[in-house]
Each structure stands twice: as structure tokens, then as C-alpha cells.
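Document type: protein sequence-to-structure record

Subject area: structural biology

Format: plain text, a pair of labelled lines:
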Amino acid sequence: MDIIRAISILAVVLIHVSALIIYRSGFDSNMCKLSIIINQISRFSVPAFILISGIGLTLSFKEDEGYFKFIKHRFNKIIPSYILWCVIYTYYTTRSFEINNLINSIIHGSAFYHLYYIPLIIEFYLVYPFIHRVIGTKWGLLISFLLTFGIIVFTRYYTMSNEIKWFLDKKNLLDWIFYFSFGAFIAKNMERFLILTKKYRNLIVILFLISTYIVVNDCMSSLKLGKDIEYAVNFMRPSVFIYSVFMILFIFSIQWEKNIFLNIINYISKSSYSIYLSHAIILDYLVIYYSKNSLSLVSAAFVIKAFFAAVIGSMLINEGKKYL
């Protein structure tokens, strides 16, 4: 799981770096098109994180542990750092510590654009003990598929009232429950799953390549038709759903060997939560610096610098915490 977690956090950073280019350049520019490709092939990241959570919770869950002990153990790992970063981002954006605003930001994950994911994961932690017997079964997988894919199709192609839009917002676990259920299913059938992904690797590679083309082309086509950028690039699209599944299968199908690269990957994996929480503020400061100095953000050089600054800077922050 360290490998898929590390690749996923790097993909999250790439989504946010590439988005800075996409929103600042014309669609006809080569830099914008390259950024769209990077952005879209990184879209498996959040589905993969949720799948990992499904695997991890299923492998570690003990029925005799007790609900509150289970919740406390998981919350202790994520809540303190999350609250700290909500405070940091709230002050960063508002220059105040207005308590009601802060509490609202913590509950809804609205302190900054990427923090919605933490309340989403908390939802899964809260409900898992009640659904663990069903969630990783074949029936659970089928029902969760119908729920998630149905919501994706509905929100993509049908006009909704504001109330339904609010309910089916990306913080709703039903939008993502298939990935979580798939993770639980993998955990309950891990040995056979790994054998099958290795056995059918060639087929998986072909389907992965086809789905990669589909997800990129889907985004490009939407933009050519004049659709809103958010509509064109977001997670809630059938093409992203299909691509994410085959990308995840592709990662599992690779025979990873222990070497220095894997050591780096393992280190990134251990730092992934800190990278997720802190990378956005580093990117924001970098954008401010570039803007103040009249430097161009729409360049390959910026993408490379921003990516490494966000990843390395976040890991340094993570290391610095050890001395506090």
C-alpha cells in the first residue's frame, strides 16, 4: 500500500500544480494542453486514497475492539494535525480566528480547497463498524458500484436543484463509496487479487491505456465545446471512474522490486498525510512570489519547480514537526 499511497500523493500535488496553469492560460496553448493531460492522468489519486482506506480499515478492524475505541484510535492519527492546519489556513485566508468560522471550516473541510477530503474520510471511519460485514462482499461491491456510478452519471448529465447539489457534493461518502468498498473487497481477497492482477497484467495494461485516452479526450472535448473548466476537469465523471479503476489495477499489477527508488517511495508514503495538508499553502506562496515578481506561471519550468517545492517543502515541514 505504500507504493500506491506515495504515487497518489504525488498525483494530488500534480493536480493542483497543473490546475494553476489550466486556469491561467488559453485552451489553445500547448502548455495548457500539457497541463490538462497531467491533471487528468493524476485524477486516480483521491479514488486510490479512499481505496487504500478501505483496505487499511478492513485489515485492521477487530469486532471485539469496541466502536469508540476504534474511532478514537483512527481519530488520534488524523484529527490533531487536521485541526492545526485548519487553523493555519483559516488565518492565512481571513487573517482572523473567528471561532464560528473556524468550527465551520473544520466540520466542512472548507478552510482551503483541498481539505474536503479529511471530513470525507472521517465519514468512512464513523460508518465502517456498522457496514463492515457488507462493504467488502460481492453484493456490497455491486450495490456501491450502482450508487457511485449512478450518482456520477446523474450529477454529470442532469440538471439538479440546489438542495440535491448540496447533498451530492464531493464531501458525500456515497460519491466515493465504490472505491472504499473495492478496497475492502481487495483486503478480504488480497492473495487471490494479487495473483489475478499479475496473471492478467497485459490485459490490464491495455485497458489502462485505453481508459487514459478516454479520460484525457473527455476533458479536451468538453473544453472544446465551451464547457466550464471545473465541469471539464473534475472527479465526478464516468471517464474518471473508469480510468481510476484501471490505473489502480495497473499499479497493483506491477512487480515492484526493492531498491533505492522503493526506499524513496516508502519515505514519501510515510509523509503523505503531511504533504496533503501542507502542500497547498506552499503552492499559494509560490504563486504570490511569481506574481509579485512578474514571472510567468504558464511554463514547464514553473510546473517542475512548483511540484518539487510543494513535495520537498511539505516533507521538510513534516520532519520539522519532530523537533517541536
Q: What stands out?
A: The first helix runs from residue 2 to 22. The chain has a mean pLDDT of 91.
